[in-house]
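Worked problem 6 (solution included).
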Amino acid sequence: MSADDTPAGDASEDPAHENALQDVIAVDPDDDPQGTVNRLDAHTGDGIRHRAFTCLVFDDHGRILLAQRAHDKRLWDTCWDGTVASHPVEGQSQAAATRQRLEEELGISPDQYGELAVTDRFEYKRYYENAGLEWEVCAVLQVTLSDVSLDPDDEEIAGLLWADYEHLHDNPEFYRQLDLCPWFEIAMRRDLGDGEAEGVTPASE
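Solution. The predicted structure is:
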């Protein structure tokens, strides 16, 4: 969900690209690990199904924090996410990866929220222009901030917007100008609409 620009093909042969040195976890449709694969190879050509997560960040007033992806992102650049999305590395739990990205991208530390809950998991595949694709089994996590202080990383985040989640969920057509990321749209569409989903469980460490 956070790869940078590179031509299609065997991306692992491009040592100049930072993501060519990174791996993601290949998975089957049930999210069972199938080894690791090069991150760029997973996002180019026909793609490789891999593990990912998206975390929806709320405040105490029922608002969700939307984050605009930086303009130099290879996939879905300048689109709006709700709120962070990435991939755990081998040996890393979804909860640990989420905490890491919340702090790195938005300056949100664990003492600003309580329980980190996994609310859903789904598989999707989407292509983006001619730049590549996402083919992921995506876990959805949710947090509610008690302290909404933010320190966004300009290299990751181009803009921030608090939006009423119920209104956004029930009236997505009013927000089309934001150009929402597909994984966020799917997560929101599957959600019950009150910031929680059925079968909420704490994220495993």
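Discussion: The longest strand covers residues 132-144.
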